[in-house]
Amino acid sequence: MPSRDTAVPRSELIADTAIGLLAERGLRGLTHRAVDEAAGLPQGSTSNLARTRAALLQTVVERLTVLEGAALLAQERTPAEDPSGPGPLADLVAAALHRHLTRHRTLLVARYELALEATRRPELRAHYNSTGRSDFAQPLRRLLSAAGSTAPERHTLSLLAWCDGIMFTCTAGSYNAAVPSEEELRTGLREILAGMLAPAATAPGTGTSTATAEAAAGAPRTPSSEG
């Protein structure tokens, strides 16, 4: 039996070991016995913390959320005096994405395993969704609002989808061997955020948005519009 670090709380040791096994062996390799053996704990230790498989998976989700949150906040940069516009937010998110892709790939693989399992376990899906929205979506929504978003709910979904797509593609997808640089991530984010946060252009002297004016100009004239 491997020796264990007694300075680490047993609950964290079990959860961290389970995350590592999940990423290394998949869900089939995640058992109470396997966690005990890998963590160097007496048989039955994991069962005492999480008696059922569902409880063990929930423990993993909770610990994963804590670790991912710490990774997101690591080296958090001081926001600019003016947080509006795409620049500051793009810098912050690009740094977080790059940290995940280069230093925390185990966490990403474990989360993808859990996401798929959650499609078959309603109780896990509810917990997965709850932690994801409270710990990731809500902070991002606040940042988007501070940056000037006029539709933070919709923009949060779009930005999360883009970030998830980048992380999946560069971890488990066809670009897994080509992690983009932080500068490349920043450029992509600035392009996306520029579209989200750009104020609606106004047609000169009309008070009407340019898009609306252009649509009206190109529309066929009807008898009523001709007077």
Element pattern in H and E: HHHHHHHHHH
Tally of discrete structural domains = 2
Shape estimate: elongated
Helix content class: 55-70%
The CATH topology of the largest domain comes to: Tetracycline Repressor, domain 2
Q: What is the distance, rounded to the nearest whole angstrom, between the alpha carbons of the first and last residues? A: 90 Å
CATH hierarchy, class of the largest domain: Mainly Alpha
Q: Mean pLDDT, as a whole number?
A: 84
Describe the model.
It is a single chain. The protein is mainly α and 227 residues long. It has two domains: 1-51, Arc Repressor Mutant, subunit A (Orthogonal Bundle), CATH 1.10.10; 59-197, Tetracycline Repressor, domain 2 (Orthogonal Bundle). 67% of the residues lie in helices and 0% in strands. It is built from ten helices and no strands. It has helices at 10-25, 32-39, 45-49, 53-73, 86-103, 105-118, 122-147, 152-171, 182-197, 210-218. Helix 1 (10-25) packs across helix 4 and helix 1 (10-25) crosses helix 6. Residues 75-81 and 206-227 have low confidence and may be disordered.
